[in-house]
Amino acid sequence: MRLFKKYFEPDYMRRAKLISLLITVLLCLFMPSAFSQSGPGGVGNSTTNRLWLKSDAGVYRDNGVNLATNNQFVEQWNDFSGNNNNAVQGTNVPLKPAFKTNIINALPAIHFNDDFIDAPALGIPRTGGFSVITVFQATQVTLLGNQ
To answer: Is 99 helix (H, G, I), strand (E, B) or coil?
Structure first.
């Protein structure tokens, strides 16, 4: 009798089960995007990310017109957080970092050697917490203290 019921259910029961299945599938497909992040790399958004610099894009040898190529000095490093907090190093050539290709895992890097690049005021309150995440490769390590 069960076999008979299973294969000969009324049409409305089959439609109800199909609709229920479709709703479940649609919720599974679209629910993650409702809670996903919109920032670079899927991390945060323009409110939570104040500055996002990456060496494989937005690195310029001038004021944002010509992309830097290997061994050129960096004048502007564009922000990808959505806040337009581009880091700049004006006309002081000896203090500009250099753009280097194929440095870390075949990706470019910005090489700092007693030089710097400035970001604008990011509006991070002194009493609030914040995180800084950096990828770097040390060329020399000096150990201090008891080892």
So the answer is: strand
SS3 string, 62-82, reads CCCCCECCCCCECCEECCCCC
Residue 81 near residue 47, CB atoms below 8 Å? no
pLDDT at 29: 62
pLDDT digits (tens, 9 = 90+) for 5-14: 555 566 666 6
The answer to whether the CB of 51 falls within 8 A of the CB of 82 is no
CA–CA separation, 27 and 135 (whole Å): 37
Structure tokens at 31: 């629910």
pTM: 0.66
Residue 99 phi, psi dihedral angles, 5° rounding = -85, 130
Half-sphere exposure of 105 (CA within 13 A, CB side): 4
